[in-house]
Amino acid sequence: MVLKSCFVYSTGVVSILLLIVGIALVLANVFPNVLKSAVKKEVILKNGTEAFKAWTDPPAPIYMQFYFFSVTNPQEVLGGERPAVVEIGPYTYREYRPMEEVVFQDNGTKVAAVNPKTYIFQPNMSRGPESDLIRTVNIPAMTLMEKFKDSHWIASLISAYMTFNNIGLFSSHTVEELLWGYEDPLLKEAKKFDSTIDDFVGLFYKSNASSDGEYVFFTGQQNYTDFARVDKWNGNSSLNWWTSDECNMINGTNGAFFHPIVTKDEVLYMFSSDLCRSLYALHTEDVTVKGIPGYRFVPPHEVFANLTVNPANAGFCVPAGNCLGSGLLNISSCKQGAPIIMSSPHFYQADEKFAQDVFGMKPKKEQHQTAIDINPLTGIVLQAAKRLQINVYVEKIPYFSQTGNVRTVVFPVVYLNESVLIDDASAKKLQAIVLEKNVVENVPFMLIGLGIIFGGLFLFLMCRQKVPESTVAEREPLLSS
Ligand SMILES: *[C@@H]1O[C@H](CO)[C@@H](O)[C@H](O)[C@H]1NC(C)=O
Ligand SMILES: *[C@@H]1O[C@H](CO)[C@@H](O)[C@H](O)[C@H]1NC(C)=O
Ligand SMILES: *[C@@H]1O[C@H](CO)[C@@H](O)[C@H](O)[C@H]1NC(C)=O
Ligand SMILES: *[C@@H]1O[C@H](CO)[C@@H](O)[C@H](O)[C@H]1NC(C)=O
Ligand SMILES: *[C@@H]1O[C@H](CO)[C@@H](O)[C@H](O)[C@H]1NC(C)=O
Ligand SMILES: *[C@@H]1O[C@H](CO)[C@@H](O)[C@H](O)[C@H]1NC(C)=O
Ligand SMILES: *[C@@H]1O[C@H](CO)[C@@H](O)[C@H](O)[C@H]1NC(C)=O
What we know:
33% helix, binds 2-acetamido-2-deoxy-beta-D-glucopyranose, eleven-stranded antiparallel beta sheet, four-stranded antiparallel beta sheet, 14 helices
């Protein structure tokens, strides 16, 4: 009898202890904090860590896909009609971007490196060969015409040369030429007068397998939120036609790394070097990629809005006060005067007017937005797609008959989708970490659950112990009294 009630009472004591410990752990948030500090220790750029390995040689394949817009009615456009284009693509390149010449600085708080990108054509993931022809705006010609639009004399000379050599507003080039560069006859002629002119042009001319300057990153040793954040960049202005040192503002993370323990109200800065400025993205929804939970970050509408809607976008109006409308960014000053305008593909999130001005534009959120999905615990990028469109500002220039009666239009040339999806091996590792996190985080709740079970057992045993001592008949008057 004594042994039995001793057992019963220990059950009660165990139950209360479990409940106290469980609730204390929940309140003190011990396990999540332990886990977080373990992650913070692990995610640091230090020779030997997993994070360093993934940073120097990203394991997930990165693809750069190009979709060109070929003009179908060039004669009519010169006559003043609305341009019609067809989208031709994708032309897909695998992008390799290892960190090289890695040198640690300042006791391991910083690390310097160069980050050359190499593009390898993927015929199996492309619509056709790189020799496919695209008819689009002749960008060097448009640049030259814009440049001399106010100098009657030079303009007439150039215009005559263009007429003589059959150079017009539109030209046909292969995908390979448009991307990686070709010798332009008009610029070759111009070079005779000004030897500083580079007569090779291309959207990614000289970008293959070459470095865009030295970066200095924080390692995250001092503060985990600094992990892989760019501290300095000496952009190499002479590298290509499309970049210059006026555009060396850089901010946030250049590439696929974010600090661990991302919160929902965090602002992510990204994609600065192409746009010559930093954009930001905010949390919009929770997603699951290959079974791993992630937060999706997307640049909000305000990022692209016009001045009326978001006065903070005054910086988008270049030169100051000259605003093109929502969703467009004039990056002419970054492209040595070429009238290049950036937007989202198909003018997604831009003023409707721009999509209506060109027949063939069909903006769609899913296909044309830029988005990045990040695992909040580790900061690892699960999936990302950076989508940008390159347009040319086309207008009628009186001294150049080549522009005919063309309407003023932001003319789409090509859009790109630079995307990455976590590889299976990394996903498996991450799944294990997520599982571990879930188990560890649930330990206090399991303790509480056990406490409740023991409590129930205790009550049950107490009641059963009482029953044999008295009969139901004896208890009845007690209850009814
Ligand atoms: C990292 O360590 C390895 C082996 O100890 C060494 O060969 C390599 O040079 C180190 N890398 C850096 C960037 O210090
Ligand atoms: C590097 O660390 C050592 C020892 O921890 C310290 O004496 C030294 O001042 C540090 N140097 C710098 C540049 O922080
Ligand atoms: C880029 O360079 C690599 C190696 O130098 C070469 O194999 C590849 O074909 C080049 N890609 C393009 C698009 O020219
Ligand atoms: C860079 O980011 C910081 C905030 O992290 C911001 O204050 C600063 O204005 C940004 N710089 C540029 C050039 O966008
Ligand atoms: C700015 O955008 C809003 C909404 O898209 C539009 O109603 C307004 O007319 C625009 N303002 C200017 C000056 O373009
Ligand atoms: C774009 O900016 C350049 C200089 O920064 C300027 O000359 C040009 O007029 C602008 N283009 C438009 C369409 O506003
Ligand atoms: C990139 O985006 C385009 C549409 O914008 C889409 O068709 C394509 O499948 C995307 N590529 C990847 C690898 O997700």
